[in-house]
Structure formats: C-alpha cells, structure tokens
C-alpha cells in the first residue's frame, strides 16, 4: 500500500510539472449542415468560427478571434428532387465570450450582434454523461467517447463528446464540462462540431478576469423573455 501511495505521489508531481498551471489553445466551431434534412448551408453559413481558449486557476475563457458579421446570403433548398434558390440572413455575432468559474459554479456568455451587446450570467450546467467504450485519435490525443442530452438553456440536443485523460483539466468548449479529462471535440446534433487544436501548457498562472460589457447582466430566463418581445 505504501509503495502504491509513493508511486501515485510521484505521478501527481510529474503531471504538475509537465502540464504547469495554464492551458491555452484554439477552438474551431464548424457548421456541418443546416437545421432540417432538406436545408443546405450556404458558403457564408458554413464558414467556421475560431476562438482562443485559456484555462487557469479553475477558470476558463473562450473568445471569438475570427472576424464575423451578419449578412444576407443565398441558400438552396432541395424539395421533390429539385433545388430552389432563396435568400436568407446569416446572423453572426461580431464578438462572443464564454466564461466559466468552477469554484463559484458561474457561467457567462457575452456577445455583440448587430452592434447590440448582451450579457448573460447563469449557474454552470452539469451533465449526465454516458461513457462509451470507443476510442479515436484527434489532433494527436487519444480520446474516449461520451454522450449526453444537453437540456441546458431550454435546449434538447444530442451531444457526442471526445475527451482525453492525457490532459488533467475537466473542461471543454462553451458550457460543456464534467468528464474525466479535457473535451477535445463536441458534436452537437450532427449539425455542429467544435474541435480544440494547438493546445499548449505553461507553468505560469494566467489571470482570468470575469468579463463584462455595456449591457446589464441577465439570467437566461430574462434574456429569453426580452428576446421574445
């Protein structure tokens, strides 16, 4: 028993020395298809979005770094074997920030769309993950599969996650968290894929301040009511 405890102690030290205090990376959000079986994504709607990511001292922040804006675009809808051309508005936020504070169980989403700021603060959601005996390699990491149904924020989404225990950080994209390792990739309803790349550890802590903008903080319920008006 003493030998096992000594081995576990040295493993913990090695992990701490190897991974340091800060994890940084790049997250890409890629639309895979439109909502509904008959809808094809236009080129603008299919354009991936890119985010920076930092985790340190039980906080994480994810910020949009690609240039985005809303636009009117052409979409093709296939029906009865024919394609019909129609126009649609591609609504994209010019600024998006996702923030988590694990100690306080706090989750925030801030975004700017059509020059209007929004600031939503909620309790960090938890998920009922089902661990699947299936592996694959993503961006050099051996990943394990997990599934859940995302019901947070009035959603009902089928989620497939690929996480790695090679990274001792129980975090992931957006509000997803709670797996025994870092979530490298999330698949949402077969419509959207979020994938981490260029992950780097450093020994120094990186201060992460709680973000705010000019909009008042709203709960998700109040934001939904306001949006419905």
Structure description:
The structure is a single chain. The chain has 229 residues and is mainly β. The chain has one domain (2-228): outer membrane lipoprotein receptor (LolB), chain A (Clam), CATH 2.50.20. Helices cover 12% and strands 49% of the residues. It is built from two helices and 14 strands; from the N terminus they run H-E-E-E-E-E-E-E-E-E-E-E-E-E-E-H. The strands form two sheets. A twelve-stranded mixed beta sheet has the order 9-10-11-12-13-1-2-3-6-7-8-14. Strand 9 (130-138) and strand 10 (141-150) form a beta hairpin. The longest helix has 18 residues, at 2-19. The protein is globular and about 45 Å long. The model is unreliable at 4-19 (pLDDT under 50). Pfam families: PNGase_F-II_N. InterPro entries: GLPGLI. It comes from Flavobacterium omnivorum. This is GLPGLI family protein. Residues 207-229 are annotated as: Disordered.
Nutshell version of this structure?
This protein is mainly beta. Helices cover 12% and strands 49% of the residues.
Keywords for this entry:
229 residues; mainly beta; outer membrane lipoprotein receptor (LolB), chain A; 12-stranded mixed beta sheet; two-stranded antiparallel sheet; 2 helices; 14 strands; 12% helix; 49% strand; globular; GLPGLI family protein; GLPGLI
Layout of SSEs?
Blueprint: H1 2-19, E1 22-31, E2 49-56, E3 59-64, E4 71-79, E5 82-90, E6 95-101, E7 106-113, E8 116-123, E9 130-138, E10 141-150, E11 157-164, E12 182-188, E13 192-202, E14 217-218, H2 220-228
Parallel strand pairs: 8-14
Antiparallel strand pairs: 1-2, 1-13, 2-3, 3-6, 4-5, 6-7, 7-8, 9-10, 10-11, 11-12, 12-13
């Amino acid at each position: 028993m003493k030998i096992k405890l000594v081995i576990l102690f040295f493993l913990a030290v090695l992990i701490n020395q190897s991974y340091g205090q800060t994890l940084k990376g790049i997250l890409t959000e890629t639309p895979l298809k439109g909502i509904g079986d008959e809808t094809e994504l236009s080129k603008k709607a299919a354009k991936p979005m890119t985010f920076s990511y930092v985790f340190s001292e039980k906080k994480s922040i994810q910020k949009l770094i690609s240039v985005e804006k809303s636009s009117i675009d052409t979409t093709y809808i296939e029906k009865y074997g024919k394609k019909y051309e129609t126009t649609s508005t591609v609504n994209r936020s010019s600024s998006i920030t996702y923030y988590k504070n694990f100690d306080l169980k706090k989750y925030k989403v801030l975004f700017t769309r059509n020059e209007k700021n929004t600031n939503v603060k909620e309790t960090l959601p938890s998920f009922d993950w089902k661990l699947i005996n299936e592996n694959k390699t993503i961006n050099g990491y051996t990943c394990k599969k997990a599934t859940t149904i995302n019901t947070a924020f009035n959603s009902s989404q089928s989620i497939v996650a690929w996480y790695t225990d090679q990274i001792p950080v129980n975090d992931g994209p957006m509000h997803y968290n709670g797996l025994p390792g870092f979530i490298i990739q999330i698949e949402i309803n077969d419509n959207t894929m979020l994938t981490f790349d260029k992950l780097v550890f450093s020994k120094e802590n990186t201060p992460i301040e709680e973000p705010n903008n000019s909009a008042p903080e709203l709960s998700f319920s109040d934001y939904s009511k306001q949006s419905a008006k």
